[in-house]
Amino acid sequence: MNIDMIRAAATRLKGHARRTPLLTSPFLDEIAGRRVIVKPECLQHTGSFKFRGGWSAVSALDEATRKRGVIAFSSGNHAQGVALAAAKHGAPAVIVMPNDAPALKIDNTRALGAEVVLYDRPGGENREAVGDVIARERGLTLIRPYDEPQVIAGQGTTGLEIAEQARELGVENGDVLICCGGGGLTSGIAMALEAEAPGLRARPVEPEGFDDVVRSLITGGIETNNRQSGSLCDAIITPSPGEITFPIMSRLCGPGVVVSEDQAMHAVALAFKRLKIVVEPGGAVALAAALFHGDKIEGEAVVAVCTGGNVDKDVFGDALARFA
Amino acid sequence: MNIDMIRAAATRLKGHARRTPLLTSPFLDEIAGRRVIVKPECLQHTGSFKFRGGWSAVSALDEATRKRGVIAFSSGNHAQGVALAAAKHGAPAVIVMPNDAPALKIDNTRALGAEVVLYDRPGGENREAVGDVIARERGLTLIRPYDEPQVIAGQGTTGLEIAEQARELGVENGDVLICCGGGGLTSGIAMALEAEAPGLRARPVEPEGFDDVVRSLITGGIETNNRQSGSLCDAIITPSPGEITFPIMSRLCGPGVVVSEDQAMHAVALAFKRLKIVVEPGGAVALAAALFHGDKIEGEAVVAVCTGGNVDKDVFGDALARFA
Predict the structure, then answer these.
(1) Domain named Tryptophan synthase beta chain-like PALP: which ranges (chains A, B) (predicted)?
(2) What pLDDT shows up at residue A100?
(3) Do A21 and B23 touch (CB under 8 A)?
(4) Which residues in chain B touch residue A272, judged by CB atoms under 8 angstroms apart?
(5) What pLDDT band is residue B228 in, cutting at 50, 70 and 90?
(6) Do A26 and B278 touch (CB under 8 A)?
(7) B22: distance to nearest CA of chain A, Å?
(8) Which residue of A134, A163, B11, B304 is most buried, as measured by CB atoms within 10 A?
C-alpha cells in the first residue's frame, strides 16, 4: 500500500469518477470562526466516495478475472459503488445483503446492474458462508469495503484532489476532517496528503458511541465499538478500524474528533441551507466537527469531506425541521 | 452584446465564480429515455447563477465608479449575487427590497455585506423612485437583473462551461434546457453555444401560467404574463423578456417548453434523491422538462441547467413528501 497505487488509481479513475469541486459559504465560515472548505463526495456517482474504491478495485483486475465478476457484502454505499463500477466495466457483480435491508436499497443496487443475493440475517445465517459458496462456484473476486489495498487507493484519489484544489484556494496548512468508518477513505487521504500536501493533516471524525477509530488512535491498538447499529450515522458505522487501514492512520493522522448525533443533523441542515447539497448524517460528521468543535482544530482554514448523501427523506426532513 | 464580452467576463470570473461540474444519474436517464446531464448552478456562490452576472457587472466598472458603489432592485437571487460580488470587490452595495419580503432574505442579503433599503410595497411606494434618489445622491451604478449587457455576459459564462464540459462527455449535439425568467441566462448561454458548441441549442423552460418567453418566441413579439406572483417557481417569474435578451433568444433559441408546478416539484425531489443537490422549484423547471417532456426534445442527450437552490425548507419538504 503506497502512494504510487493511489496515483495509478487516479489514472484509472480519470474520466470515470467525478472530480467533485470544493464548496464554501461565508455563513459557514462565520459559524466556524475560520474558513470552511467542503469536499462534497455526496456528488460522486452513486452518491458517495465509495464509487472511487469500487472503480479502482474492479479496474485493477486482469481481464479474465474481471469477466468472472466481483462480489461484495454491503447494504449501503459500498454496494452501490461496486455495483455501478462493475456494470460500467461490463463485469458481473453479486451483492450480498441481509433480507431485512430496506427494499429501496435492494432495488437501487439491482437497478445499478448488480445481482442481489439475500441472506437470512434475522435467522442467524452467516453472510460470509453464503457469499463464499457463490464466490467459489463462479470464481468471483471479493471486494472488501475498506481493508483492501485497491479500495484504499481509489478512496485516496479524493486526497490527491483535495491537495490540488486546496492549493488553488491558497490553503496549504490545516486539518482535513474525514467522516470515518473502517478507515479506507481516511487512510487513503492521509497518504495522498503526506505526498502532495504535507501541511495538510488528515483527521478522522466519528459519532458518539461509535468512536472506535478515535479511541484506537489514542490507545495505539485496535479498539471495538460496543454497539454495531442504532445510529443515524449508519453509513459510517463499523466494528473497528481495519488491519491495513489502522497502521496507516496511526502513522499519519492527527487526533480524531467525536461529534454528537444532533451536531451531525445540524450539519445536514446547514449543508442544505448554505451549500445546497444533500448529505447523510454519517457523511456530515466531519462538517459538524468543523462547525462545532473549532476549539479542537488548528489552522486558519479547515477542509471537511462530506462523504455521502444517501439519506432517507424522513431523516432529512427531520434535520431540516429541527435545525434549518 | 457579443461573444467577446462573454469571453472577457469568463476571464474576470476565473478563480472567483465556481466552475460547477456536470452531474448525471442512470436513474434519471431511465426516466427521461435519454442521457440527462445537469449543470447545477445551485452550487454556485450564493446558491444561484446570479453571482456570475453580479461579478461580471461589478468587475467591469472602472475603479472610481466601483468605489462609489452599486444598487440593485431584488428580493431574490439577484440581490444575493450582487451583494456578495460587491462585497468581494470591497464596493458598497445597496439592495432595494419590499418591506414585506421574508425576513430571512433581508437578513441573508445584509449578512453578505449589502445595505438593504426597504420600500413600502403594500403602501404602493414605487421602488424605482426610492432607488433613484439614493443612486443619484451617492453616485451608485444600477445593476439590472437581466437586461444589462455585462450581466448577460456573466451568465453566458455558464454556456462556455457547458460547451467544454459536454464535449468532454462526448455530447456535441442536443438541447440545452434553461430555467428562464427575463432571459439573461438563456440569452447568454445561447450566444456562448453559438460560438463554442453550435450543435447544442439553447431552449428556455418556464412554469405554466408564467410562460411569457415561450409565447414571445412563438409570436415574435414581447408577450407579458397576466400574473406576477403566486407561483412556487417565484425565482424565475418576470413580467416579460427583456429588450436586450429577447432579440438574442429569438435569433438563437429553439422553441420553449412549459412544465407544470407539480412537475417542477417532482424534479426537485428527484434532484434530491438521485443527484444529491438542493434545487428550488423555479430552478428545477429545466430538469422537469428533460424528465417529463421528452417528446418535445431532440437528441440522444439533453443538458438541463438547475439554476438555483434557494428554497424554503417547507417547500422542499413538501416536494420530498409528495415525490421522493
Answers:
(1) 15-308
(2) 86
(3) no
(4) 278, 313, 316
(5) confident
(6) no
(7) 9
(8) B304
B306: closest chain A residue by CA: A276
Give the helix/strand (H/E) hosting A94: strand A93-98
Assign residue B209 a region: left if phi > 0, alpha if psi is -120 to 50, beta otherwise? left
Domain positions in chain B: 3-49+148-323, 51-142
In terms of Cα–Cα distance, which of B293, B143, B122 is closest to B206? B293
Is it the case that residue A112 has pLDDT exceeding 90? yes
Nearest chain B residue to A19 by CA: give it: B21
Question: What is the predicted ipTM?
Answer: 0.96
Q: Which CATH number fits domain B51-142: 2.30.30.50, 3.90.180.10, 3.40.50.1100, 3.30.70.2860?
A: 3.40.50.1100
The residue to which cell 481495519 is assigned: A242
Give the residue with greater pLDDT, B236 vs B102. B236
Q: How many CA atoms lie within 13 A of B191 on its CB side?
A: 24
Asked if A303 and B69 count as a contact pair (C-beta separation under 8 A), the reply is no
Cα A249 to Cα A198, A213, A220, B29, B208, distances in angstroms? 15, 9, 10, 39, 55
CATH class as words, domain A3-49+148-323: alpha beta
When the pLDDT of each residue in chain A is averaged and rounded to a whole number, the result is: 96
What angle, rounded to 10 degrees, do the helices at A149-168 and A50-60 form?
130
